[in-house]
Design a protein that fits this description.
The complex is a heterodimer of chains A (114) and B (114). With 114 residues, chain A is mainly beta. In chain A, the strands form two sheets. In chain A, strands 2, 4, 5, 9, 10 and 11 form a six-stranded mixed β-sheet that branches. In chain A, strands 1-3-8-7-6 form a five-stranded antiparallel β-sheet, with no helix packed on it. The relative contact order of chain A is 0.34. Chain B has no helices and eleven strands.
Chain lengths: 114, 114
């Protein structure tokens, strides 16, 4: 069964600190992995998308890593800001005959405190 | 324009009402999706339209009726809903239905069934 598991489920950090969110997946075959940021009651916004051959990708203060061998990804947030408070969702896409089948992780709820 | 626009943003309806959710994109995307998201849970796929034809129905109850009038518009018609249908309804679109394509999400419609 295709699954995406994220840890921790929730995280509280102080403004200015760094943090790392984890994502483990069992989706096969693998097409790509995306990290989304979702503010409460809003739609997810893409942060990064990584394919099988990519190990690291950065988007401003966000850096995602991917280890396709161990099927693990991480999202590192540097110098956190209050506006980083949101849910971060790891989404893995498996190439299937049905097409764009996205498997969502449960998300990590991040709260940045002043 | 990289936006997926959903209307209304909020909707309160009774169990005997008929209402519709609307989704619009002008990115030339040929695949459009409806997701349902309960609080603190990841989005769950409901329907996929590819080239204006329904390609995936994830066993959604018939009280939810999708419609794709043209390549830019996607509607979700609601009738005789139950309180447990209250959720955030997200629309998304992508270039195609292939797994390598980026999915863009709308801001969602917060639906409350009373």
């Amino acid at each position: 069964k295709n699954q995406v598991e994220q840890s921790p489920q929730s995280l509280i950090i102080l403004e200015g600190k760094n943090c790392t969110l984890q994502c483990n997946y069992t989706v096969s075959p693998f097409s790509n992995l995306r990290w989304y940021k979702q503010d409460t009651g809003r739609g997810p916004v893409s942060l990064t998308i990584m394919t099988f051959s990519e190990n690291t990708k950065s988007n401003g203060r966000y850096t995602a890593t991917l280890d396709a061998d161990t099927k693990q990804s991480s999202l590192h947030i540097t110098a956190s800001q209050l506006s980083d408070s949101a849910s971060y969702i790891c989404v893995v896409n498996g190439e299937l005959a049905r097409g764009n089948m996205l498997t969502f992780g449960g998300g990590t709820r991040l709260m940045v405190k002043p | 324009d990289t936006e997926v626009t959903q209307t209304p943003k909020h909707l309160v309806m009774g169990m005997t009402n008929k209402k519709s959710l609307k989704c619009e994109q002008h990115m030339g995307h040929r695949a459009m999706y409806w997701y349902k998201q309960k609080a603190k849970k990841p989005p769950e796929l409901m329907f996929v339209y590819s080239y204006e034809k329904l390609s995936i129905n994830e066993s959604v109850p018939s009280r939810f009726s999708p419609e794709c009038p043209n390549s830019s518009l996607l509607n979700l018609h609601l009738h005789a809903l139950q309180p447990e249908d209250s959720a955030l309804y997200l629309c998304a679109s992508s270039q195609g239905q292939g797994g390598h394509t980026e999915a863009f999400f709308g801001q969602g419609t917060r639906l409350t069934v009373v």
